[in-house]
Design brief:
The complex is a heterodimer. By secondary structure, chain A is mainly alpha-helical. Chain A contains 15 helices and eight strands. Chain A has one domain (3-239, 310-449). Chain A is globular and about 70 Å long. The chains are: A mainly alpha, B mainly alpha. Chains A and B meet through helix 2, helix 3, strand 2 and helix 14 of A and helix 3, helix 4, helix 5 and helix 13 of B.
Amino acid sequence: MDVFLLSRLQFALNISFHILFPTITMALGWFLFYFKLRSNLSAHPVWMRIYRFWVKVFALSFALGVVSGVTMSFQFGTNWPGFMERVGNIAGPLLGYEVLTAFFLEATFLGIMLFGMHRVPNWLHTLSTLIVALGTTASAFWILALNSWMQTPQGHEVIDGVAYAVSWKAIIFNPSFPYRFFHMMLASGLTASFLIAGLSAYRILLGDNKRAPTLAFKTATYTAALLIPLQIFVGDLHGLNTLEHQPQKVAAMEGIWETTEGAPLLLFAIPDEEERTNKFEIAIPNGASFILTHDINGKLQGLNDFEGEHPPVAPVFFSFRIMVGMGMLMLLVSWLGSTYWLRKKQLPTWLSKFFVGMTFSGWVATLAGWYVTEIGRQPYLVSGVLKTSEAVTQIPADNVLISFVLYSAIYVFLLLAYLRTLMVMCRKASDVEEYSRPEFTQFKLQQAEG
Amino acid sequence: MFIDNLTTESLGNIYIGLLGLAILIYAILDGYDLGIGVLLPVKDEGHNDKMIASIGPYWDANETWLVLAVGILLIAFPSAHSALLQSLYLPATVMLLGLILRGVSFDFRAKVIEHQKQQWDFTFKLGSLITALAQGYMLGIYVTGLRSDMWAQGFAALSAVGVTAAYVFIGACWLIAKTTGDLRAKAIVWAKYGVLALALGIAAVSITNLMLHEDVRQLWLSAPTGLVLIAIPILSFTLLGIGYLVLQRLPSIESAGDKLPFFIAALVFTLCFCAFALSYYPYVIPGHMTINETLSNGESLKFLLIGAIFVVPCILLYTVMVYRIFSGKLETLRYH
């Protein structure tokens, strides 16, 4: 295999593994802040108990995010030297601001959040929880600004192949940035919600009948039910934005080869890039045109208009369907769950099991979504400015093969250890006794839950 | 603003200064983390929890200084970043794997059942050791100007041991400051071995360094820089001697002087760092690339500098704050 393919595989592996954890911690940080606030406002320890369980999950996920993130900062130089040579003047400061304004903030205040509860006043502990949440969000802001600039670059000029900044405001707030930022934050919210719901359901199924898992389950179900319609709305806006700036990506997502008026919405198909056609289509007539142009006879540009300049079709096409399918499932399950929670004190066992099955649905949807947008940008690394193949390293392919094998092994090992540890933590937590002190009566509990 | 009027030369100096600061702080802070990891007994005799708790609230932020250092190198000196990391591709990969093992073990061990804890302690130690050795090795190759012949390999191997010894020394000193009783007594013994190993390491690295580079040798023999450069090893050895005496005289129970060894260690680190910095300035990669040759576009650097001027002092401030919050001897650290 050549160094280009290996470098791409390695980068895809690293970033796919990395994104799993920030996707959890970005929103879990805000969940923790909420739990901590509820704990401050009520005298009942149930919210603190929820906080303590989830702060451990946060710490573990955060550590995995940090170590896999450090790897990324090295790979720009080791595998993609052309990236910094050609667009470093734009990417550099954005990455720099991420380190300065987000990484130190998160890492330092996490120390207080995890170990400082008895060392600092309560307000400072609450503030630290808030600062960690803000830090993870700031990190998302900068890195998504950079990623969006790579998708829809503006505010720069290219001289002799090298990009120079003209307007930082235009660079940061480039056309796809607001959509991508909110889309990702909501994705994180949903990922964390389904993680909390799934693990809480797992604890309840293990026989944990304390208030804490039920209350966390309920909170997460309601949050998911609120976020998913918002996400569908923002996702739709994001799609329209992509249609305007990267029509070839949308054409790949929808599997449209020829420019068509009244293009059908393909529920299923197998795109065949050699024949430049689809097989086994199941379609809703005029559907794609209606969704994307809000007109059943709207015109959509096809892939054949971009021959040689469009992404590989099948991975984008399928990833997009996986993401949307997962979103629909999330809508169904969270609304069903919420309906039950509103009417009853408990969920039926089959639904709890369903939630356990959905524990990592956020990961699937988020990864699929990133594959759509990142593969959809190919063959470019920075749309219209730099091709991926122009940025790759000259080092021997064998070296990259060695590192790729090593990374693969360690990531598989870590992922298994992570999942296993989460299960162990659930079992440990289930064995803990419920509060028996008389001052935490049922009445008090109801007050605490508000 | 005055930033707009900065010359390329002063921009280069500011960024190489920031890079140096980040590397120095990283070496001191993550140095003690890694040293404690290397020292961690494989067979737990009741001290492992305390040793790991002594770095609990800090390791994450400590490692961030490495991200900052690599980040500054990437942003301000991109061609040096890619030249350096492409020739150090495999050792850098090994170091990253070490950092991954070290970082995650810390969190896993606190959450699993008892018998698995020992396995994570082992990966913690292994990860720390791999990281320290790999960093020392890379430093060695870097100092030779990215050579790869046998001489350079030998020097790099020496440097790997030297850096690991330095980390062990500062790690043991950190433990003396943070712990009591048995563990503190053990740490004093570790620190004494550490002083000896470090003294040997500094001597060996200094001599080899003089033999390797003609221009470094010239620099060391020329006034006035040469005087400073010769003063540095003398000062370091004096400090290490004082450090050894302090360790000899530390009373068997905890005392006010328990923090002293750590400060001595940090000072020795700073001195060694200054020797390197003075020897190689204005090179970013010794003998190959100078600051000016590899400095990236001035306008982008100015844009980042505006933020850095405000943010870096804040980072230092809240880092100090966290160290004050958790200062003093260790209590058993728990997640609440």
